[in-house]
Design a protein that fits this description.
Number of helices: 5
């Protein structure tokens, strides 16, 4: 029942927030022949969490999170701070748009932030501007 309520909230907010900039695009929901509810969103890219962290298996068998190469480059490359500022500005723009619709996102975290990866030539132009 908890899962169905969570899905109903996702559907409600997906429809209510449709068309807002920097907000994941909800397409539809449907129930299949087995009674399973499906929510369909456009695949916007990768999560901020996946962009920043990866897992590493230790000799002990434990798994730990470690920074990705993307994280390292962002921290060391010219324009890295500008990239962080751009991501934060888009995140805050999305939060402001959601709040303007009288909705509060109660679970903003790196796994719920999706990055739209630009084509390589767009990144090259952006990096040239950042230098």
């Amino acid at each position: 029942e908890h899962v169905r309520q969570a899905a109903a909230r996702e559907i409600y907010h997906g429809e209510a927030l449709r068309g807002l900039a920097h907000v994941g695009r909800f397409i539809e929901s449907f129930t299949d022949d087995d009674g399973d509810l499906w929510l369909v969103f456009i695949d916007e890219g990768m999560s901020l969490h996946s962009w920043l962290y990866t897992t590493q298996l230790l000799a002990s068998g434990s798994t730990v999170l470690v920074p990705t190469e993307s994280w390292r480059l962002m921290r060391t490359m010219a324009g890295g701070r500008a990239r962080v500022a751009e991501v934060m500005a888009q995140l805050l723009t999305a939060a402001a748009a959601i709040h303007a619709q009288n909705t509060t996102h109660r679970d903003i975290k790196t796994s719920n932030v999706v990055l739209s990866v630009r084509p390589a030539n767009a990144n090259a132009n952006a990096n040239a501007d950042d230098a």
